[in-house]
Amino acid sequence: MNAHATPDPAATALPDPSAGASPVMAQYFDAKTRQPDALVFFRMGDFYELFFEDAQKASVALGITLTARGQHAGAPIPMCGVPVHAAEAYLAKLIRAGFKVAVCEQMENPAEAKKRGSKSVVHRDVVRVVTPGTLTEEGLLDARGANRLAAVAVRGGQAAVASVELSTGEVECLATGVAGLASALAALGPSEILVPDRLFADEAVSQALKQAGGFVQPLPQALAEPAASEARLKRLYGVETLDGFGTLSGAEISALGLIAAHLETTQAGKSPALSAPRRAGEADVMAIDPATRTSLEIEKATSGSREGSLLAAIDRTVTAPGARLLAARLARPLLDPAAIDARLDAVAWFCERRPQRQRLREALKGLGDMARALSRLALGRGGPRDLGCLRDGLAIGEAVAALFDPAQNPLVAPPEEIAQALLALTPGLHPDLAQFRALLTEGLGADLPALARDGGFVGAGVRPELDQARALRDDSRRVILQLEARLAAESGVALKVRHNAVLGYFVETTGKAAEPLFAAPLNATFIHRQTLANQVRFTTVELAELDARIAQAAERALAIELDTFEAWRDAAVSVAGDLQAAATAAARLDVAAAVAEWAEDVGASRPVVDRSTAFEAEAARHPVVEAAVRRAGEAFTPNGCRLDGAGAGGPRLALVTGPNMAGKSTFLRQNALLAVLAQAGCFVPARRLRLGVVDRLFSRVGAGDDLARGRSTFMAEMVETAAILTQATPRSFVILDEIGRGTATYDGLAIAWACAEALHETNRCRALFATHYHELAVLEQRLAYVANLSLRAKEWNGDLIFLHEAGPGPADRSYGVQVAKLAGVPAPVVARARDVLERLEREAQGPANLDDLPLFAAVAEAAPSYGPSPAEEALRVMDPDGMSPREAMEALYRLKGMLS
Ligand code: ADP
Fold it and tell me: How buried is residue 649: exposed, middle or buried, by Cβ count under 10 Å (0-12/13-18/19+)?
């Protein structure tokens, strides 16, 4: 996690601005005082300059030279700067290093300032504060990854996580319990998290935020107060009432209000094009806590890179928004079988239509990131290329809709998900959108600059006055060339007409050749302007007049272009809703077709997801390990797995044994990943899968030290195990690998034993429990719904061969010594280990008579319940001082409700 931005007192300790600052520096102090905890990028001509402490920090972080500018209070002012045209790269570096940057722009040009008086300083203002969660520039964003700003709030024992992806305008809100905050945040993977400071002071909450991994930004409690939040939210959306968003809870309003407050400050009043908050509750998405997410490597591998993750293995999308949508679906699998089926229908439809699917994918390849382009335009940061992206995107949308036009292709009607998407892309159904597109198709040029102020993007024939100004400008250029030829002929001097920003157009010759121009009669025409080492520069009355005319015409042409750009920009914002819908539709089609493509590649099948508690996988594979094994030229062995939470169709807890390297972890994860894929609405790499919806998925696999958070392997393992035992429900799915390994043998065995019993008796969830303790095998006889499974290996000529085959019954031995041999442990050590093992086995030093233990149920009844209850959790974070009497009453009822 990045250090959260507590203002550094040294950074804010500015010299007293009143102490004789120059007018420009006074402006700087003003900006800095308003943004004490951000680095101020102070625009001066072609540079953003940083001063004082900011300059010292930035010069170190960016590796640029620290210089000085003038003096303040008798000391030189430390300064460093970055050129405006390259500012994005520097910004990216500073944001990654954990800084916030306030961009203070020149709000007028020097000529405008002069009109107010010769001593006036150019007016400057902070136009934006750049933070990790509010990036919108292509250069600062990962095209295939989301960049979310999240906010958490708790009111009356209920919690909410709101999030916005400013680069696309998507807003979401998840209502949850306090205990669900970590999972909810982890599902979003935000880059920045806003939290009321009073809530941040709560140890459990701050832990949850740290686990989510974003840049944590505590904000004053007052910003989360309901009335203020509501007002700000209405302002953000430009609505009179929030009723249109459904009944938002107090926590949801506070969380959304924090986001509104942060956007107000960071976007300096510019309003982004935001979608209405899409709301979800805990009953809508599978809860996957941060530890499980990391261990299953869903979106990222443990190394932190995309490579090696489930997402990377299945991602065949051809557009960046499609890639982001697929990632979001994998991150938040659904719980409603009907909603899951809707997605599966779309995939199945594309599976059956290979040629159309290929044509669709071909067409989508050219699609730009419309949602991000639109968002930049709405925030006043867009350029002609963003308009081009919208124009071309709509054209592609039309082509895509035509591909599946029912009139032309008498196909079976597409399923709802696809039909909806096609409707959003059919131009005939969106007259405003079609009109907007016509505007751009007719007016916007082909070769587009990134910035509007570079001009040249408005086509000919769009605005007559622009054509006139351009003709004048271009014609004058021709006249200049004629003038150059004439002046050269008349004077007999080899001269050229050149142009620069300071002198405008001028006549230039080399030193020697210039001599006649200083003498009569030529000196009557040629007026000396400048002498450089090798060149001498002159002007003439005629040239000066021409220069003014050209400059005026160019200026006028640019002004008209900028004006046109603004009109088009406004037009884009006015159809923002339709544009967002079109962009989302294209992303959905991309995802459905991509999943179908992957399914065909790897032979994945459609899962059956229902409300049972079954788990029936036949001939299933691990998508990531399989790809790796294949790359190594080997075959992956498919394995089935049958569990049932109700204990009807199979055991609910399977104890998985087998030697090291036999494939236990792979087997465990593969089954968990099947659940993720199926509920995300993807096909699964299995011959068949029937899955009763999993409400919470838990994985505790492998032992990783979490030293950064001060926990040893064993402690980390126990913390995660505790979370599983207190939260897993009969609908949950749990995989546990090698529990109790990080401590002494008997300790470990005892813990593993107790955990297995608790999962079976108390949690009653579906669980796969891999263990080295063969002693646990007897649980099969003692508990009703336990089965032993093992991954097979056989010894052949003294060597160990892994079959990677899961079958009933426990493993006969550990084969640790054989694995050591395989790993290249020197032969004498292996031989000695065999001796010791034989001796130990002969003397049977294992734990004796575990069979005599009383049954878990008998002991558990007397034991206290696990962990804090939801009611206790809710009480702990309740803030009586911050509640209205009505909220207090509501909270009381909710607490009472929790007891039942
Ligand atoms: P364990 O957890 O039993 O030590 P792993 O699951 O880590 O074993 O698997 C070890 C290696 O065996 C994997 O990296 C993979 O290369 C290979 N493997 C695992 N399962 C299979 C399988 N079903 N088919 C083929 N190879 C497999």
Answer: middle
Q: Select from 530, 419, 557, 400 the least CA-distant residue to 476.
A: 557
- pLDDT > 70: percent of the chain: 92
Q: What residues are in contact with ligand 1 under a 6 Å CB criterion?
A: 625, 629, 636-637, 639, 658, 660-666, 804
pLDDT value at residue 744:
66
Query: What letter represents residue 64's amino acid?
Result: I
Kindly state the average pLDDT of the residues 545-551: 87
477 pLDDT band (50/70/90 cuts)? Answer: confident
Whose Cα sits closest to atom 17 in ligand 1? 663
Q: Name residue 539's amino acid.
A: T
Query: What's the pLDDT tens digit per position in 212-253?
Result: 878 899 999 999 998 999 999 999 998 999 988 988 999 999
Cβ burial, residue 276 (10 Å; 0-12/13-18/19+): middle
Cβ(291)–Cβ(186) under 8 Å? no
Where is mean pLDDT largest: 14-18, 331-335, 425-429, 463-467?
A: 331-335
* Per-residue pLDDT at 848: 54
> Which ligand 1 atom is the nearest neighbour of the CA of 662?
3
Pocket test for ligand 1, best of 769, 804, 822 (most atoms within 8 A of CB): 804
Q: Residue 15: what pLDDT?
A: 52
Please give the distance, rounded to the nearest whole angstrom, from the Cα atom of residue 801 to the centre of ligand 1: 12
CB atoms within 10 A of CB 313: 20
CA–centroid distance, 664 to ligand 1, in Å, is: 7
Query: Which atom of ligand 1 sits closest to the CA of residue 668?
Result: 6
Dihedral angle sign, alpha carbons of residues 890, 891, 896, 900: positive
- Of the listed ranges 234-238, 279-283, 407-411, 682-686, the least confidently predicted one is 407-411
d(CA 127, CA 134): 13
For residue 791, which atom of ligand 1 is closest to its CA? 3
Rounded to the nearest angstrom, the distance between the alpha carbon of 661 and the centre of ligand 1 is: 6
Mutate which of 666, 669, 769 for ligand 1? The one with the most ligand atoms within 8 Å of its CB, which is 666
pLDDT digits (tens, 9 = 90+) for 498-508: 988 888 899 99
Q: Whose CA is nearest to atom 5 of ligand 1?
A: 663
**Does 4 have pLDDT greater than 50?**
no
Question: Starting from the edge strand earliest in sequence, which strands make up the sheet with 496-500, in order?
Answer: 496-500, 504-510, 535-539, 527-531
Give nearest CA residue, ligand 1 atom 25. 636
Question: If pLDDT is split at 50, 70 and 90, which confidence band does 11 have?
Answer: very low
pLDDT at 186 over 70: yes
Peptide bond into 521 cis (omega under 30): yes
Mutational pocket test of ligand 1: of 624, 629, 634, 738, the residue with most ligand atoms within 8 Å of the beta carbon:
629
pLDDT digits 0-9 by tens, 663-711? 999 999 999 999 999 999 999 999 999 999 999 999 987 555 444 455 5
Closest-CA residue, ligand 1 atom 6, reads 663
Q: 703 φ, ψ to 5°?
A: -110, 115
Select from 302, 639, 660, 661 the residue to mutate for testing ligand 1; criterion: most ligand atoms less than 8 Å from CB: 661
Contact 210, 316 (CB under 8 A): no
Token representation of residue 242: 């929030």
Task: Say if residues 497 and 505 touch (Cβ distance below 8 Å).
Answer: yes
The ligand 1 atom at the shortest distance from the C-alpha of residue 669 is: 6
The residue whose CA has the least distance to atom 19 of ligand 1 is 663
Q: What is the CA radius of gyration of the chain?
A: 34
Instruction: Answer for the pair 812, 885: CB distance below 8 angstroms, yes or no.
Output: no
700 exposure class (CB count in 10 Å sphere: 0-12, 13-18, 19+): buried
Ligand 1 mean position to 600 CA, how many Å? 24
∠ CA 671-676-677, rounded to 5°: 95
The structure's pTM equals 0.84
